[in-house]
Specification:
The protein is α+β, with helices and mostly antiparallel strands. The chain contains ten helices and 20 strands. Helix 1 runs parallel beside helix 4 and helix 1 runs parallel beside helix 8. It is globular and about 65 Å long. The chain starts with a strand and ends in a 15-residue tail after the last helix. The site of flavin-adenine dinucleotide has 36 residues, from helix 1, strand 2, strand 9, strand 13 and helix 8.
C-alpha cells in the first residue's frame, strides 16, 4: 500500500524532450505539473542529438537563446552524406526563411537540463528524478493518475490529466491497454563513440556503400557513431568478431582507420532497436500520449526529438485553458491528436521510404564510383531542388508549432 499520495493538475510520465517541454510550458503558464523521470539524471548517450531550426525558434520564443548558445555544440548548415566515396549534400538549411538556418548538435542531456532549469524557476513545476511510472490509476473509464516507484517507496499521484511521454516502450501506454500499429523497420543501430580524427573531413551525417551505413554525428571532441545493421543481425556481427566490425567501419569510412581501435570491447557498443509505429487513438479520458509514446520515430532525418517537442507545444497550447478552468474533456485531447497527426503521418512514411531506399545496410551500392554519366546528370539536376525541399521538411517539419499567448508566464 503506497504510503504517500500526491495530487497535481497534470502528471507527465517521462522526462525526455516531449515530457520536459510540456512540463515547462504548462508550469510557466501557472498549471501545476509533476514530471516523472525514471532515471536519476538525463545523462544517456543514446538520445537523439539534433536540435532543428523549428525547435531553436521555440528556444528564442522562450527567451532561452543566450543559455542555449552557451551549451557546447556544433552547428551544421548542411547535411552531407558520402555514398560510395561520392560526397553529396542533400540538405542545405541556408535556404530556410527566418533567423535559424542550421541544426545544433548537442548532447541531449544538456538540452534537457536547460529546459528543466528553466522549469525550476516556476513554482508549479515539479520534476521528480528517479521516479518510475509503473501503472495508471482509474476512476471508472477515466485515467486519474499514476502509480509510481521511487527510491523512497511507491507513491500514487492523482491528476486531472495524465500524459504518457515515456517513449517508444511506454509503460503508461501499455497500462492503458493502448497498442500502436507497427510499420516495420528492417534495421537496428549499433551505437558507439569514436574520437575525432586528425584528418578532419567536413561534417558528415553518414557514409554508405554496398555493405554498410555508418553514421558520424559530429560532437565536441568525438563522433557519436552508429552502424545500421539488419534487424536481429547483432549476434552474427558479434560472432564475426570485433576486428571485422572495425574493418567494416573502415571500409565504408576509411578516414576512421586511425581511431577505430578505440572500440576495444563489445561493451562500448550499444544495440538500439529502430521502430516506426503509431497509435490509432492517442488518448483516453484523462490520458494523452505524445512523442514516441504516441508515434515512435526512427532516426531517419533526425527529426524525432523535434516532433516530440512540437507535440508538447501543441498539447500545451490546446490544453492550458481547459486545465486552468478544470474543464478538460476528451474533445480537447482529440484536438491535440488531430493537430499533430497530420505532420506525423506525413513524416513517418518518408522515414520508411528512406529506410527502404538508402538508410539500410548496403543502401549505398546504387551509386557507382566514379559516378556514371547519367548518375552525375541526375545528381546535378535533382540535388539543388532536393536541398531546398529537404531543408524545409527536415528543418521545420510539416507543421512547426509556435507558443501561443495563452501560454505566457503567469
Ligand atoms: C538509434 C536512434 C537514434 C536517434 N537519433 C535521433 C536524432 O539524432 N535526432 C532526433 O531528433 N531523433 C532521433 N531519434 C528519435 C528520438 O530519439 C525520439 O523520437 C525522441 O527521443 C522522442 O522523444 P520523447 O520525449 O517522446 O521520448 P524519449 O526521448 O524516449 O524520452 C522518454 C523519457 O521517459 C523516460 N521513461 C521511460 N519510461 C518511464 C517510466 N515508466 N516512468 C518515468 N520515466 C520513464 C525515459 O528514461 C526517457 O527519459 C533516434 C532514435 C533512435 C532509435
Amino acid at each position: 500500500m503506497p504510503d504517500s499520495r500526491l495530487s497535481t493538475t497534470c502528471c507527465i510520465a517521462g522526462g525526455g524532450p516531449a515530457g520536459v517541454m510540456l512540463g515547462l510550458l504548462l508550469a510557466r503558464a501557472g498549471v501545476d505539473v509533476i514530471v516523472l523521470e525514471k532515471h536519476p539524471d538525463f545523462f544517456r548517450d543514446f538520445r537523439g542529438d539534433t536540435i532543428h531550426p523549428s525547435t531553436i525558434d521555440l528556444i528564442d520564443q522562450l527567451g532561452l537563446r543566450d543559455r542555449f548558445d552557451a551549451i557546447r555544440q556544433t552547428v551544421i548548415r548542411t547535411l552531407d552524406i558520402v555514398i560510395n566515396g561520392n560526397r553529396l549534400t542533400p540538405v542545405d538549411f541556408s535556404h530556410l526563411p527566418g533567423r535559424n538556418r542550421g541544426v545544433a548538435l548537442m548532447p541531449q542531456w544538456d538540452f534537457l537540463a536547460l529546459l528543466a532549469e528553466e522549469g525550476a524557476r516556476y513554482p508549479a513545476f515539479h520534476l521528480m528524478m528517479g521516479a518510475e511510472a509503473t501503472g495508471i490509476l482509474r476512476d471508472g473509464d477515466a485515467v486519474r493518475g499514476l502509480t509510481v516507484a521511487t527510491d523512497a517507496g511507491p507513491i500514487e499521484i492523482d491528476a486531472a490529466l495524465t500524459v504518457a511521454a515515456d517513449g517508444r516502450d511506454s509503460t503508461v501506454r501499455r497500462s492503458a491497454g493502448l497498442e500502436p500499429r507497427d510499420y516495420g523497420v528492417a534495421v537496428d543501430v549499433l551505437w558507439f563513440r569514436l574520437p575525432r580524427t586528425a584528418m578532419n573531413p567536413p561534417d558528415t551525417l553518414a557514409y554508405l556503400d554496398a555493405e554498410s551505413m555508418v553514421v558520424t554525428i559530429p560532437r565536441d571532441g568525438y563522433y557519436q557513431a552508429g552502424m545500421l545493421i539488419p534487424k536481429g543481425g547483432y549476434p552474427a556481427i558479434r560472432e564475426a568478431g570485433l576486428e571485422e566490425f572495425r574493418a567494416r567501419i573502415v571500409r565504408v569510412a576509411p578516414f576512421l582507420a586511425e581511431v577505430v581501435g578505440s572500440v576495444a570491447e563489445w561493451s562500448q557498443v550499444r544495440l538500439l532497436t529502430v521502430q516506426v509505429n503509431r497509435l490509432s487513438r492517442w488518448w483516453q479520458p484523462g490520458l494523452l500520449c505524445i512523442g514516441d509514446a504516441a508515434h515512435a520515430m526512427s532516426p531517419a532525418f533526425g527529426v524525432g526529438v523535434n516532433y516530440a517537442i512540437q507535440d508538447a507545444v501543441a498539447a500545451a497550447n490546446l490544453l492550458v485553458d481547459p486545465l486552468r478552468c478544470g474543464a478538460l474533456d476528451t474533445a480537447d485531447l482529440e484536438r491535440v491528436q488531430k493537430r499533430r497527426l497530420a505532420p506525423v503521418s506525413r513524416m513517418q512514411p518518408l522515414q520508411l521510404r528512406l529506410h527502404a531506399i538508402v538508410a539500410k545496410p548496403g543502401g549505398g551500392g546504387f551509386l557507382a564510383n566514379p559516378m556514371r554519366w547519367w548518375q552525375r546528370t541526375a545528381v546535378a539536376i535533382l540535388l539543388p531542388m532536393l536541398r531546398r525541399i529537404t531543408a524545409r521538411i527536415v528543418g521545420r517539419g510539416f507543421r512547426p508549432e509556435v507558443i501561443e499567448p495563452q501560454l505566457d508566464p503567469r
